[in-house]
Amino acid sequence: MEKQLIISVGREYGSGGHEIAEKLSQHYGIQLLDHNFLDEIAAKKNMNMDHLKELDEKYKNPLSSRTVRGFSSSPEENLLYLQFDYLRERADAGDSFVIVGRCSETILKQYDNMISIFILGDLDKRIERIMRLYHLTESQAVKKIREKDMNRRRYHNSFCVRKWGDCRNYDISINSSNLGIDGTAKLLTYYIDTRRQ
Amino acid sequence: MLAQIVAVMIFIAMFVLIVTEILERHVVSLICALLTIVFVFGLGMHSMTAIFETINLKSIFTIEFWYLSGEVSGGSAGINWETILFIFGMMVMVEGMARVGFFRWLCMRIAKLVNYQVIPLFITFMILSTILAMFIDSITVILFLAAVTIELSQLLKFNPIPMILSEIFCANLGGSATMCGDPPNIIIGTSLGYSFTDFVTNTGVIALVCLMAVLTYFYLIFRKELKSDTSNSVNYGNMPSPESTITDKKGFAVSCVIFAVAIILLVTHAQTGLTVSTIGCIVALATLVTSRKYAILLLKKVDYKTLLFFIGLFVVIGGLEQTGILEIMAAFIGKISGGNVMVMVAIIIWLSAIVSAFVDNIPFATTMIPIIKSLSAAYGVDLSMLSWTLAMGTDIGGSATPIGASANVVGVATASREGYVIKWGLYCKKMMPATVMAVLIAMLLIYFRYL
Questions:
Q1: DSSP letters along B420-440, please?
Q2: Which pLDDT score, from 0 to 100, does residue B232 have?
Q3: CA of A37, closest CA in chain B: separation in Å?
Q4: Closest-approach residue (CA) in chain A for B306
Q5: What is the CATH code for A6-196?
Q6: What is this model's ipTM?
Q7: pLDDT beyond 80 at B28
């Protein structure tokens, strides 16, 4: 039986982190979990998928939520707990998967077979990529990157003690601008294979 | 003047930090308490007497703290140790009851009694929530009721959200009916010297009328949503039997006896002379002694953070009281109302309700107690009437938003974690009209009965 492999990928917007996660999932032949696993949660809990999508990777507003004895009134936080439970269940079941974002490097930290990666990129390269992918002007791309990164940072930091992008929180942090998407994925497979030996 | 400014600054900082949850609320209140002692009482007032009066340890060593031979009297200012001991005792008792499966058994027993029919279940669970919350904390009530509601909704195929929302409202309403139902009531009762009977015959009557109104309101708005999907026939034989929920039969019987004794002692405490601190100690000791090997586990489960939060809070409010800030605020309310009692009642009940809808009602109620005392003294208004007004406003107002009261947070979280997400919009759409209606009814009843 194949040894379990869980790869957690955190990423800056425009760094190609998601594409790299896809390449890693294809390389190892394991499932990629991003927003798609909300479908499974929705089906399991008989939930409205639109509700879930609205709340996915959103940070909680401290002024409109309150915590009492570990219970939170924040829908965003409660969805996150559902995702945490789902990921832990999968990990406990011995499944292998690549998980993108969702504080996975923190909540799956206790699993020995988990490797956490953070993909960053040079701002100019990220702007270039976002302009090309979404047909945006430079200023629009800069705005989108700032907005997305800020949301990811706030989302992550409102639920985790270690900060988003802090290299001490991940097994490996890598700038994808230097090696490109394929080169970065290749280097990461080398790192993952070495770790698994 | 400097002491007053510092006391207000500390109080505002405490509120902001509690609301933003940057630190846990007990840490915030204890830090602010320390700052009050050092900067307000020490550097500002140079008064060791104020410090000792606020810490109030000497009150524990008086006979009146444990036993009152005559009329029920008002507690002294500062840390209200009577409240702390009583809440501690009730927490131990409730943990003991939860351990043996009492609450789950009660919910399942009632579900069986109404033959698992959704609408009767909806009505009886609202009434159960109200009655339980009269004696035990609303967090525990909702924790169990919401969990059982979700379990039954999955078996009986109905949407549990309407039922959970109604249970939350009724838990808050039930809390307003008695002295021990909601922390603001315990603080009001022990600070101003009211008995359990005083509350039941005043706020209890108002809560009963409000309950009739909200039962009707929730039935009318939720009856369509609560239609069970009977196309898939439900096998009632698959329902968990009430007896199967009891984890320790002997412990269960003992817990029932202790709970009954607690209710009897509370109902008769004005006659027996036993104070709520004594009652708290009796039920805690009885629970711990009869739980034997589980005693340590029960003690570990007590929510000490809430008790520490209370201690810190009493010191910070003591700072406002000792520096005369609360008298200034009372004078301000008196001035706005022009000494008119009806306006005064309206201001207190709506202000309490609105503030409690967004922030913790405990600090607010604690702050308001010296204010209503001053108003009563300055304008000759009946203090008990103002107390019932304050209790109803703070207890009911908390139902309006998902963050207004602890029961709301626990109910919303329990539902959301099972996949039934309750967002602000949905919550407020259903609960705000009920809250406004109940506060209005309470205000009119106070006008009708006391003026």
A1: ----HHHHHHHHHHHHHHHHH
A2: 56
A3: 14
A4: A69
A5: 3.40.50.300
A6: 0.80
A7: yes
